[in-house]
Amino acid sequence: MNAASGWPPLQRSLVAILRGIRPQETADIVSALVDAGFEAIEIPLNSPDPFASIEIAVNVASKGVLVGAGTVLVPEEVDRLSEIGGRLVVSPNADPAVIQRSAELGLVSMPGVFTATEAFSALSAGASGLKFFPASVLGAAGIAAIRAVLPPETVAAAVGGVSHKDFASYAEAGVRTFGLGSSLYKPGLTAAEVKTRAEEAVKAYDTVFGRHQ
């Protein structure tokens, strides 16, 4: 029986993707993002010592902030994430074993999909939402076409080559959840620089979707 958590009711459905972050900078970067208004943090597992960074992020983030891992490829990584308090499982693909293990542990699962077949398979496995990736290739029109045949309550996120400048075009396709990577954070940026970028993204999101979701 699947017991996956649904996508949480965030005020702004924005996920900060901190690919390449190091443990020693995690606390300051995460604090800056939360201060700017972000409520979801993803640290990909191909970052340096990712589980250490995730545990730091979990401890630093405010209660209610969704913290987890990206590039999750095997169920064992889901187990380890859960053990350190992570609640978000993001993958570039839609592996049923990863999705089902996330569901069993009650974690929020966002697998990567590109086709209607992958989307329905991911939902059948218990996914909380769908990460359309790479969104810059599929485009808003492509996502809209697939969304038209999905259950209307399905959470669709645009990830990959997306920045705050793209919110309006994806909004027309019914997308209101976004994963922001290099437009928000790159290794070497200071916490102050990340906060400035985060505030810009939050302002753009509020302009397109309104302040309260």
Secondary-structure topology with pairs:
Layout: E1 14-17, H1 23-36, E2 40-44, H2 50-60, E3 66-70, H3 75-83, E4 88-90, H4 96-104, E5 108-110, E6 112-113, H5 116-125, E7 130-132, H6 135-147, E8 156-159, H7 167-171, E9 177-180, H8 191-209
Helix pairs in contact: 1-2, 1-8, 3-4
Notes on the structure:
This protein is an alpha/beta fold and 213 residues long. 42% of the residues lie in helices and 15% in strands. It contains eight helices and nine strands. Strands 5-4-3-2-1-9-8-7-6 form a nine-stranded parallel beta sheet. Helix 7 links the parallel strand 8 and strand 9. It is globular and about 45 Å long. The mean pLDDT is 94.
